[in-house]
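agent> Task received from the user: take the single chain below, predict its 3D structure, and emit structure tokens. No templates, no multimer pairing.
agent> Plan: (1) validate residues, (2) run structure prediction, (3) serialize to tokens, (4) report one or two observations.
agent> Step 1 OK, no nonstandard residues flagged.
tool_call: predict_structure(input=
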Amino acid sequence: MRGARCCSSLAILLATISSASAQVMDAEFDAQWGLAAIGAQYALEKGITGAGVAVGVVDGIFQTTHPEFAGRIYPFEYNPQSLGPNDHGTHVAGIIGAGRNGFGMEGVAPDVSLAPIWAFAPDDDLAVAYRDAVAAGIKIFNNSWGLSNERDVTTQTRQDAISTIGVPLIESFYGTLQAGAVQVWAAGNAGLENPDLYAGLPYLFPELVPGWIVVTAVGRNSQSIGLNKCGVTASFCISAPGDNIYSTVPTSTYGTMTGTSMAAPHVTGAVALAKQMFPNAHGSELASLVLRTATDIGDPGIDATYGWGLLNVGNLVNVIDPDDDPEDGDDNGSVFVNAAFSRFAAVDTLTTTLWNRSAQRILDGGGATPTVSVAQATAASPALPAMALGGPPLRDDVDTAVMLTNGQGPAIWAQGLGAYARIDGSPRADASLGGVIGGYDLIDTGTFSAGIALAFTSTDLDTHGTGDDASAQGWHGFAYATWVDAGWFVDGVVGGNWFDNSYERTTIGGTQGTVLGNAGLAGASSSDTAGFAARVAGGQVYQWGGHALLPYAYLTVVSQRTGSSTETGADIFSLQVASSSLDQVEGGIGVRAQAGGIVWHAFNIAPSVDLAYGRLGGDVAFPVDFELLGSEFSANGAGIGRDVFRIGAQLDVLRFDDSVGGFLAYDGRFQQNAQNNTFSGGLFVRF
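)
tool_result: status=success, residues=687
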């Protein structure tokens, strides 16, 4: 014989129905203590209320005319005997979805639609009712019923289950799960170590596990109240408030009841919220999500008393946009956003480095690397050592003046790079870059020079306040050319970029305090990025008294295409990150100044500074789209800003015979919410 998960107490209370005010709305929420215990307020704050979702209340027939359900009765009913409203069924329905209307109390999912399904028809008939309900669009079922003489499921065999329940109903259960439905079951109230036969059926038939949830009850102190425990069903069992729960009862009033019957509808309401969040998810995925976002209570990990732990709606809704900041999109994807920024910063470091090299050659008087000539004067001066000029000592009755002229011939050059970039936002991220770039000047006529360069970069990104990080190994190839004539110049560089990206998310929305979160859940993924970069600059050189000034205008284009990636290791929270295309165009003006050289032994030392301002077009928020449980979301950065301020300083050291030279440089790029600081040093050898 089957019966409802009967209550230990029932007190019928009349509620005053009046116009809602803010204070009454607060009282409406507080009337049902279980809502705050599971964090239902966080769903309301995000507007997640179960709208558009239908739930079948498999129980005694609930009062469909109760004001708390007005306008939300789903167009399906299984009530073959035309029975009147039942106290138990009405109470269960209210916990799931009583309306947020300013009076009485409210349910976990106050905008959900509800359908009455009589649980106590013959098994074969109930089997048909489940199938018909699924066909009518109902994919969530609350089952706060079972055997009136409860049997510990571990004392039963598969044949016992078939004899008691019947093959048609067991097959119907399986059919609903295969169709994407979720079956939520009250564990029972007999104080058993395991659920009773109906709730624990997947223990005997494991194929029923995906999409099946067993619910045990806790009190206000989040402790068991002595009813049936999770036991052998712990891996698909959860805990929820079930002690003295205030909810709807006939006729159009309210009362309190206790039991796992009251705990189960809390979970059912949460499944409805999850369904609204992820309408394309399969029932097995929704069930897994609700279980895995529960707060771990009792013994660490999944335990026989509380299963996965206490239902946590706050965690559930934080699976989407954990910090609830609408300005930056979903923070689950922030590591991918910040990684995109770091790749653009790496390319900017390289194009700026190539510009520095070209600019210094232009300032020195032409496309070639400068050499040194010696002019004789009339005043006496000590001779320079032979090593300085590579020849015999100068006469000691002449003065010497160092003048930069154009040396010609191939040159091999290389330099090391170190950079630090930061993007501010929610959350902030820091990126460190190391690398090397080197090249070969293929052509050097004095007026026109050209060459090729290859570079390798390694970038590590750390997201503040989280354990999320990313890395990118980059390989780059460039061609560069400079034309100089009568002080005018045009300089250009064009190249390709390829990155091997790795990502790790250890701060995963919805897992705070959960079994998986406490165990160090982490998601890992990888992707490739192919890109294109080009920079062109033009201007004129002004020289006087050994000093030089170079005003210029520039235009930079950077484009990157990143492939899709599939996260592993994050269980139900794994993301499918879509491929993305990001483009930036920066145009601006600048000026570079170089002071006259300082002679030191066999070398000339020349300092220079570079100041520029630009405007950035294209992608400044680095949007990334991803999919979670069949629903699409977008993550965006705070926006790095479109105004770009650049500052650079460089110290060049050149041997007089032009055989070897080197430099040290700093370049900074500053924007509203980002900066990139590069330190570099290098040398060249001419032969």
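agent> Step 4: summary for the user.
The CA atoms of residues 387 and 614 lie 46 Å apart.
agent> Done.
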